[in-house]
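To assess whether ligand presence alters the predicted conformation, the chain was also submitted together with zinc ion. Input:
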Amino acid sequence: MKKRVKTRKVSGVESVEPAITPLADAPLIPRVSKLPPIGAPRLDIPEGLWTKCPKCNELLYDKYLDDNLKVCMHCSYHFPFSARERINSLVETCSFEETNADLQSIDILSFKGPSNYTEKIKQNQEKTGLRDAVVTGVGDIGPHRVALAVMDFKFLGGSMGSVVGEKITRLVEEATDRNLPVIIFAASGGARMYEGMFSLMQMAKTSAALAFHAKAQLPYISVLTNPTTAGVMASFASLGDVIIAEPRAMIGFAGPRVIQSTTHQELPSDFQTSEFLLDHGLIDLILDRNEMKRTLISLLGYMSRAKNRF
Ligand SMILES: [Zn+2]
């Protein structure tokens, strides 16, 4: 076996001398770099004006980033998008009528844990300005009237508790009654642990409402955004007649570590991404956020001509 020799750089010249061990009583002098590394952003940039892209490291002017629906102009990285921003980017001005906006979760299990559920709900309401992790309503996308539900990952990880399930179910039932197509934008870490079995029940409830909607031969388009996982992916998010995903979104049921330890197999590097699932037939389309509205109008137009309704 080859013996490894420690080397160190001196003034750009590669030394082959073994590293000298300092004497035990020698003072340790930390190396302090006086200059910032080349390419580092200036430190005097005012906050709230620029955002650094986590993928390509470019600095993006916030106004241009907002105009581009929070998609990086250099590498197409999709920044998180709130439910309100998403609705504004899709529906025609003043056409959106929110439904069941006053529904709010209660601590039905008197949850005991590291944090208090009622307190958590309050904090998340203040942080996001939402009552719970989904906004539902009826609005116009182009010439089409649609029932729209948009989840917000910032509210308790977009988790599905009884309010999220109830709001989606009521929306789908209203769409069935009024002959409207349904579009749901999912963004979720799964069921809400604070509500235990009550949150798991929402999987069956939302799926049943969508089954009645499908029986009425009305279309349902599911859009998966980053991330869509666990109980939400295992219920309404994977039931769309057309399933669309945003680029490089994380989509799956169990986490990759759980799957790897169960199957004892090496997982591909792009496992549980939109691109991987498109290749394997789970989703139909990957769409950039900027193309979403145009494509939804075109899909709804195609489906309405096929059915000659809504
Ligand atoms: Zn970028």
